[in-house]
């Protein structure tokens, strides 16, 4: 059995998230089904993270063991022939036997896109959050608020799983917010993110952008260790996993 | 009854084209249903053209008569509240009583987008034609071929309706072909286009790009007045109506 490293892009719109589930159409489930068919034996893969239903990826990394005569390039071609049009195998490579896509990941980049234009974005509707009265958003104050997130913090207040037993300490290296025309791109780079964390960070920064809370309130939210203090969870479809980093 | 001029953008993916049809979900049908509900009387609108199933528009113009106390801005807001997320009313204005969106149109711009990259474009899959072996396409020879299309010609060879009784003479002002990364944008500007004409022009230019026919063959196809001489009809989803012009 050889351990392979896979990189996938996908449009998450019509899936119940990344992770395989019985009786639900998921991205991982689709990929495992094609690989299982290819080698005629059950294949399990492990993603670098779990994206929620409706969340997209430009470069999700996964690993999985299988036995085949095919070259990595042939495996990639097989995947792209049998996967649906909204999932693409970007790369397949032989990995070291100990490589694990989730456990070995040292960083991730997520991008959340807001749409602040006046007209409904018919072509981007599945990839952006159309915030109401988007022109009222103060992007500069959002940048200020984001600067307080950078660093090593306990992000329990931004965790969607309130029964989380493991550590909720994470390091955010950078939050880059750029307004381009009718779009606000918010890029989060960190060593890892908790469940719903990027969506809650986004909902909170948007609250700040509307003036519902001040930028200086962010350190208090972090210190409070209480999900109730942060803003709402932004909808999934504006979110995209851009990159997974390894040493 | 006041004659209004409407401008719409739409993602045509899930519709059976623009034109209202009994028992089929169409863009015009959706818009007429909302307007009919708004004024509580049957409203008919007239589009500047008929886009095929799967074809998109960034600025389809239509006109229709109705009686209402609402301002044009209020009509627009009503439309955007009740139309689905893939149809947007961009503009509503009072038009002259004799304005007819189709009969008064003096020009149209369509854009056809080819995808020539190696990887499946999961996010653009409904808006581009993924041509096989796209990297083999010779865009310069396609530009050469396109130059023969410009001018006033009988485009019968490029008409999808072989029972067309009316004139098949049209004037193409310009065909602009630009390669940007993995995309080839083909912009057709003319005084009007026959049924499937842009799709057949595209299929023919792609044939030339692959070297299946020479650029110099285009004048012979035009002169032959026979649909069989031209290339295949390109798929609908790469096509978008960009603009309708009026004097």
TrEMBL record, chains A, B:
Reaction(s) catalysed by this chain's protein: uridine(38/39/40) in tRNA = pseudouridine(38/39/40) in tRNA
Gene3D superfamilies noted in UniProt: Pseudouridine synthase I, catalytic domain, C-terminal subdomain (3.30.70.660), Pseudouridine synthase I, catalytic domain, N-terminal subdomain (3.30.70.580)
Gene Ontology terms, MF aspect: RNA binding; tRNA pseudouridine(38-40) synthase activity
Active site, UniProt feature: 52
Segments forming domain Pseudouridine synthase I TruA alpha/beta: 9-102, 145-247
One Pfam family per UniProt: PseudoU_synth_1
Positions annotated to bind substrate: 110
UniProt function note: Formation of pseudouridine at positions 38, 39 and 40 in the anticodon stem and loop of transfer RNAs.
PANTHER family membership: PSEUDOURIDYLATE SYNTHASE, TRNA PSEUDOURIDINE SYNTHASE A 2
Subunit structure of this chain's protein: Homodimer.
Name of the molecule in the record: tRNA pseudouridine synthase A
Organism: Coprococcus eutactus
């Amino acid at each position: 059995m050889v351990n392979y490293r896979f990189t996938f892009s996908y449009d998450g719109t019509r899936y119940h998230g990344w992770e395989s589930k019985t009786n639900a159409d998921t991205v991982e489930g689709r990929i495992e089904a094609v690989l299982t068919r290819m080698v005629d034996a059950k294949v399990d893969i492990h993603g670098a993270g779990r994206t929620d239903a409706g969340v997209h990826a430009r470069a999700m990394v996964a690993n999985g063991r299988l036995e085949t005569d095919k070259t990595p390039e042939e495996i990639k071609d097989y995947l792209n022939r049998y996967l649906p049009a909204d999932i693409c195998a970007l790369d397949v490579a032989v990995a070291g036997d100990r490589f694990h896509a989730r456990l070995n990941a040292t960083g991730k980049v997520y991008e959340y896109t807001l749409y602040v234009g006046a007209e409904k974005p018919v072509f981007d509707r599945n990839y952006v959050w159309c915030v109401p009265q988007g022109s009222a958003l103060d992007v500069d104050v959002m940048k200020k608020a984001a600067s307080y997130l950078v660093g090593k913090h306990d992000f329990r207040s931004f965790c969607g799983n309130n029964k989380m037993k493991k550590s909720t300490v994470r390091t955010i290296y950078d939050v880059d917010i750029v307004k381009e025309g009718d779009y606000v791109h918010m890029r989060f780079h960190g060593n890892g993110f908790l469940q719903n964390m990027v969506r809650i960070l986004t909902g909170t920064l948007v609250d700040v952008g509307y003036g519902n809370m001040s930028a200086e309130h962010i350190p208090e939210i972090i210190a409070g260790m209480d999900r109730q203090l942060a803003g709402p969870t932004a909808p999934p479809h504006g979110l995209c996993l851009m990159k997974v980093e390894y040493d």
